[in-house]
């Protein structure tokens, strides 16, 4: 299991993981939106699930697809553990 720290901004979607299972925590300070997609979403696209400051989410799926994230405003740090 690899754990990494990823800086997220509001101006572009950042690839987070392609692993079929993992866990991510938002260390803030901004709310993060995350989603899966086959290709990098346009920067103007704001659709995604919200992950608030100091909140976390895990995932497990049969078929891995890239998870992308961007902040609602400002920046945030995600701690991501894959596996």
List keywords for this structure.
single chain; 83 residues; mainly beta; Jelly Rolls; four-stranded antiparallel β-sheet; 0% helix; 57% strand
Please characterize this protein's 3D structure:
Helix content is 0%, strand content 57%. The protein has 83 residues and is mainly beta. It has one domain (2-82): Jelly Rolls, CATH 2.60.120. A four-stranded antiparallel sheet has the order 1-8-3-6, with no helix packed on it. Strands 2-7-4-5 form a four-stranded antiparallel sheet, with no helix packed on it. The model has no long low-confidence stretch (mean pLDDT 95).
Q: How much β-strand is present in the residues?
A: over 45%
Class by helix and strand content? mainly beta
Q: For the largest beta sheet, what order do the strands appear in spatially?
A: 1-8-3-6
**Shape assignment:** globular
Tell me the radius of gyration.
12 Å
* Name given to the CATH homologous superfamily: Jelly Rolls
Assembly classification: single chain
The number of distinct β-strands equals 8
- Poorly predicted residue ranges: none
Write the layout of secondary structure elements.
Layout: E1 2-9, E2 14-17, E3 21-29, E4 32-36, E5 49-51, E6 56-60, E7 67-71, E8 75-82
Antiparallel strand pairs: 1-8, 2-7, 3-6, 3-8, 4-5, 4-7
The gist of it:
It is built from no helices and eight strands.
